[in-house]
Amino acid sequence: MMLIPAHHFRNIERKPEYLQPEKCVPPPHPSAVGTMWFIRDGCGIACAIVTWFLVLYAEFVVLFVMLIPSRDYVYSIINGIVFNLLAFLALASHCRAMLTDPGAVPKGNATKEFIESLQLKPGQVVYKCPKCCSIKPDRAHHCSVCKRCIRKMDHHCPWVNNCVGENNQKYFVLFTMYIALISLHALIMVGFHFLHCFEEDWTKCSSFSPPTTVILLILLCFEGLLFLIFTSVMFGTQVHSICTDETGIERLKRKHQPRQHTGSWESVKQTFGGDFSLNWFNPFSGPCHPEPLRDRDWVRQVASLSDTDNTETTTEEQSEEGKYKDSVEVIDE
Q1: What are the residue numbers of the active site?
Q2: Element (H, E) at 141
């Protein structure tokens, strides 16, 4: 149960009419099609297509410019297997990160009946998101692109066209790790290929003409260097967030909303799916499934108020006590 800072208390509405039940209809029943999750965002879809195109371009250059024309068959086979395996794992992680529900809160559950069923006690409040009409549990934040509140939302990533949240953070971490590895692998192979071609005739180094070969290799080198830096930084940031049990949004709000942190190792195990094993690196193995939200998970505890806030609240409670005994306390966030 999270302690709410006192300054939020000024936004509390005690009238049940505030819930606007006519606007907050009960959430729809789950679709029979399945649990497929896909965000229809033009920018995100374009970024996801570009991601796949760049990986496939690297595949083309590595295979048809460097490995297949090589006379060292052992070198070509080993590097071909390693590069293709890492590329497959990277694209599989990308698909899982993009098509997995990141932890969306049920939409439209901020109804009068549902909040009254929580039976709030004195000093307890619930957070209502006015954008998606949902009750926000602890550590949930609204995403303007997904148009949903996401549990443990770290950020919205256009490259995977999805939020990075409680259920898909593992896949995003694996995606950044495998992209960084294939970028490093490609840069090493480009370096060896240039050294080999300088020592021999360029016409024997590739099936393409020397100018075309040089252009393709330079483009791959630029792509590999750019994505190695970018994904390495993202990987380190995500690992740090998991170990500290603090998302990017929570890090920005740390001064205003202090909270207790769980042990770093427990957070890592929850994210990657149990004790350390090879499944940690498997994009087809999911994280530990969180328990279904219970009534107490929707409720938060108000922190101690200052003297001024106490005066304001007491006056309000005295004036409303007789008329709204069954009212609820909702914070519009």
Answers
A1: 157
A2: strand 140-143
Nearest to 208 by CA among 105, 57, 69: 69
- Residue 59: pLDDT above 70? yes
Structural contact between residues 26 and 108, judged by C-beta atoms closer than 8 angstroms: yes
Least confident of 166-180, 263-277, 279-293: 279-293
Query: What does the pLDDT average to over 51-62?
Result: 97
User: What tokens were used for 59?
Assistant: 């595949």
23 contact partners, CB below 8 Å, separation of at least 6: 133
Helices of type H across the chain: 42-60, 73-99, 112-117, 169-199, 210-244, 248-252, 264-272, 307-320
Question: What's the helix, strand, coil split of the chain in %, to 5?
Answer: 50, 10, 40
Closest CA to 170 of 262, 84, 239: 239
CB 120 within 8 A of CB 299: yes
In angstroms, the CA 246 to CA 249 distance is 8
Which two tokens mark 255? Answer: 């001064």
The total of other beta-carbon atoms located within 10 Å of residue 26's CB is 13
Whether the CB-CB separation of 162 and 168 falls below 8 Å is answered with yes
Element (H, E) at 3: strand 3-4
